[in-house]
Design a protein that fits this description.
The protein is 40% helix and 14% strand. The chain is built from ten helices and eight strands. Helix 5 packs across helix 6. The relative contact order is 0.18. Bound molecules: adenosine monophosphate, zinc ion and fe (iii) ion (2 copies). Adenosine monophosphate (AMP) binds next to helix 5 and helix 6.
Length: 290
């Protein structure tokens, strides 16, 4: 039985509530999960209560969109995962709050771009259809689907919302040193998320990992829905060489990403339990689970 350490809840851009996630994880007999919402720990907080049991183990988590070190030109998505963080840490709380606030400026800019492309959509509609505090492009995409402007969330990104498309607006990102430091100061470990999404070659990735390790990075997400078995093998051996740990998860978003299932990704994902055990060892038994 395996684990899934990369899951989004309704606190960010997933469609499952934290309790739905817990139920599904139990049905799938997953032994450990982590909710890694974008820019918030509100979701995982809900299920890290004394009432929930160690079935499955719940590891605290967060995913932070970051900017890479200056010397690297990374065309893809550069995200840092934090595991085993103290959910009430004041510096982490402040940093995540700041990142979330910047979305409040960005979302209306996306909405006005859509309006200038003849689409009748308001921020109120987006707010109404979003459960948590972290509202982003997937929520806007879903409103576009509901209104019949596009037939799928993917089409909303492809036509309007993705980078390079006419209604794209970038968001504020924490620089990688700040993201890694705030995670570590909150008692957690920092991990480079979905290396395949960086869209860089493996030589560059290795140089990048060395620099990030110097900043305090502890691991690399070697197991991921979009990784081929060869990718996973390469990332595991890179981790071995650089003395990093490996982590893994599906990046489940429920109905926001219909091709990804919890626990199994696109069907073939398997994240071994020992990955979770190694994280716990690395956290120095700081009791991130219960
Ligand atoms: P945001 O944080 O508002 O910039 O939105 C980023 C999120 O949008 C990512 O974490 C993904 O969950 C989602 N996303 C990005 N590209 C796509 C796509 N082509 N189709 C569906 N979801 C996407
Ligand atoms: Zn997401
Ligand atoms: Fe990500
Ligand atoms: Fe994610």
């Amino acid at each position: 039985m395996d684990v899934d350490l990369h899951i989004h809840s309704t606190a960010s851009d997933g469609s499952f509530t934290p309790h739905d996630i817990l139920d599904r994880a139990r049905a799938l007999k997953l032994r450990a999960i982590s909710i890694t919402d974008h820019d918030t720990v509100d979701g995982v907080k809900e299920i890290m209560t004394p009432e929930t049991t160690a079935n499955p183990h719940v590891l605290s988590g967060v995913e932070i969109s970051s900017t890479p070190p200056d010397q690297f030109d990374i065309p893809g998505n550069f995200h840092i995962l934090g595991y085993g963080i103290r959910l009430e840490d004041p510096d982490l709380t402040r940093a995540l709050h700041h990142v979330r606030q910047s979305r409040d400026d960005r979302n209306p800019r996306i909405i006005s771009r859509l309006k200038s492309h003849g689409i009748d959509i308001s921020m109120d509609e987006v707010n109404e259809s979003s459960a948590g505090d972290v509202i982003g492009r997937p929520h806007i995409a879903r409103v576009l689907v509901q209104k019949g402007c596009v037939s799928s969330i993917d089409e909303a990104f492809d036509r309007y919302l993705a980078k390079g498309r006419p209604c794209f607006e970038d968001k504020f990102r924490l620089d990688c040193q700040a993201a890694i430091s705030v995670i570590r100061k909150a008692g957690g470990i920092a991990v480079l998320a979905h290396p395949v999404s960086l869209k860089t070659d493996k030589g560059t990735l290795e140089s990048l990992l060395k620099v990030l390790k110097g900043m305090g990075l502890s691991g690399i997400e070697a197991y991921y829905s979009n990784h081929t078995p060869e990718d996973t093998e390469d990332y595991c051996s890179m981790a071995g060489k650089l003395d990093l740990i490996v982590t893994g998860g599906s990046d489940f978003h429920g109905s926001y990403k219909t091709n990804i299932q919890m626990g199994s990704g696109k069907g073939n994902l398997q994240v071994p339990y020992r990955v979770f055990e190694r994280i716990i060892e690395h956290l120095g038994h700081k009791s991130p689970t219960h």
